[in-house]
Amino acid sequence: MRLGVLDIGSNTVHLLLVDAFPGARPTAFASYKQQLSLVRYLDPRGAVTDEGRQALLSFVDEAVDFARRHRAEDLLAFCTSALREALNGPDIIRQVEQLSGVKLQELTGEEESAMTFFAARRWFGWGVRDLMVLDIGGGSFEVAIGRNEFPDLAVSMPLGAARLTKDFLPGDPPKEALVGRLREYIAGVIEEPLRQFADQVEPDLVVATSKTFRTLARMSGAASEADGPFLVRTLTLKDVRKWAEKLVSLSFDERAHLDGVSPIRAPQLLAGAVAAEMVMEKLEVKEVRICPWALREGLLMHRFDRLLRDHDVIDDEYPGVGDVDALKENLHLVPPAR
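Predicted structure:
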């Protein structure tokens, strides 16, 4: 069946359509996305501006039409930290549902972390016993560890690359003193959440997801994403530390000319590198393996598992799955045979 996931993130808004069949690896069919950074649309009070609201509503309308035209049979939609924490986030979520029929599920930071871990576990399988997953988003930084499909411990910290850039690193490039303030802030934020990992077993493998980690790996010599998902890509703490230092003196334009760096991601790359460096140091992680699957894939696979188990009965009472009943008319969903 063709499943869709609509991801209202802090950096991008993205609809991914995947073809999934029992016993087969999910295969991406099509995607539709925009570089709509909700963090940049926050006013001083922490509310999404009218411009940001209208941009989001337009995208959701276009995404629903895209899903319909490509015959999506099931669609789930979720939002992460930028909209979840915005002052007017609940109002925007209600408006999205009223105008488009899309009910956005608000994921907590811990749910984001758990579902990203689930995706990484599915990718690397049971050949890895104890797995740790690091994930930098636009608004938050998640860390999880565990031995099963879902983590034993999952934490979320307000250390997303876009958030940190907006709050601490104005200027192109920012002054070194501001980077020092950023480091002081990160050190204070990570102390308590990461202390919990001291009681966990040492992981057999540490993996990293997200565009920030993938970009840093590419800048450090890893293969391009165009070469496919099955090549082994790694990133060392040594390389992260090198880039966290080097990026301080580079303008946004100079960063955008580095391997794998897009112009829209260039401004926030320094903050992401500093956060990655400090979290890896605190956890004593020397190297991470890049995982091509992350939150969206985790939610899709969890959804598909549930649909199979329940014999096509949709149940939205579990993390990350929204109510799609309101979309049936727009998507022309065919009810399952009984």
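Summary: The radius of gyration is 20 Å.
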